[in-house]
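User: Predict the structure for this protein chain, please.
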Amino acid sequence: ENGCRVTLVDAGDPSAAMTTPSGKPFEPGMRGFWKDYPNINALGDELNIEDPYTEFTESSFFGPFGLECTAPVFSGAPELPSPLGQVFASFDRFKRLPVADRVTIAG
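Assistant: Here is the predicted structure, written as structure tokens:
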């Protein structure tokens, strides 16, 4: 429409399962469309896609020793001034992060 050529680069086939050398499945990055992206909303409108979004879900992040963190869903959470909102929503979600590192969220 505006003369731009688009190339999509991805880590792998998004329809195929990817595994680590030990055989554990993993997702090579985050995929999703969020409700606050007007260009995605416009594309959905152009393609006549009605109500394309699911409810927000949490994302879990794993390291070599297991669960590292579960990212909070801020939609519907109490609205507090920054950084109190982030601290309130995420303090108990970091499983292996030392307390000294956790307090750095306060800036």
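DSSP finds three helices and four strands in the chain.
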